[in-house]
Amino acid sequence: MSFSLLQMVALLLLGMAVILSVIRFLIGPTTADRIVAADTVAVIATGGIVMLTLMLESALYLDLALLFGMLSFIGVVVLAQVITAPEQDQQETS
Amino acid sequence: MNFVGDLFLLLGALFTFLGAMGLIRMPDVYSRIQAGTKAVTLGLLSILLGVALHQPEWIPKLLIIALFVLLTNPVGSSVLARAFLRSGIKPVKGEER
Q1: Which of A48, A78, B60, B94 has a 20 to 30 Å separation from A63 between CA atoms?
Q2: Strands, E assignment, chain B
Q3: CA of A94, closest CA in chain B: separation in Å?
């Protein structure tokens, strides 16, 4: 486990990015803002896992990052379907 | 080589931070999608490049992750924007916010 100063600063910036996204998740006026914030947190977390791979010096975590990105993409597509579903129901009934 | 890799890591983290700040400051949900997807994707690719400069034997896996992110991230944001538009969220125009 080895850190350089620039890596520490990069990790700090990533953590602050996660905090800003979580703030948007908490104060987001609509559900759409919360979904966008959750998607952004997932992508930032993928980058964090890749940096963790570098610091722990074990290539195993790269598979974890790929799996995490895949699951977040599937989650975003499912959430988009869930948002558009009531609209389709209204169109069918009217 | 390690210093250049560290610089790319820092650049990627900086772009990610700027994307998250755009998520806070943008006025409506469509521009928030733009800020939260493009800048964060660029930051993630830069982080992957930095890790590749540090550990050259991981380049195949890093390439797979980069291709996957580059394919799925814009698709995900486009699907979200279409869903928001179809569920009736209007974009903010001009100076109103």
Answers
A1: A78
A2: none
A3: 16
| CB contacts, 8 Å: B32 with chain A | 24, 33, 36
pTM recorded for the entire structure? 0.85
Residue in chain B lying closest to A17 (CA):
B17
Domain-located, residue A92: no
Task: Specify the 3-state DSSP secondary structure of A59.
Answer: coil
A69 vs B84: CA distance, rounded Å? 22
Cα–Cα dist A27/A20, whole Å: 11
pLDDT digits (tens, 9 = 90+) for B16-26: 999 999 888 88
The parent domain of residue A9 ranges over 5-86
Distance from CA of A56 to the nearest CA of B (A): 12
Whose tokens are 């914030």? That residue is A37
In a domain, A39, yes or no: yes
Higher pLDDT, A75 or A94: A75
Q: DSSP state, B89?
A: P
| Residue A89 pLDDT exceeds 60 | no
- What residues make up the domain containing B68? 2-86
Contact: B68, A63; criterion CB under 8 Å: no
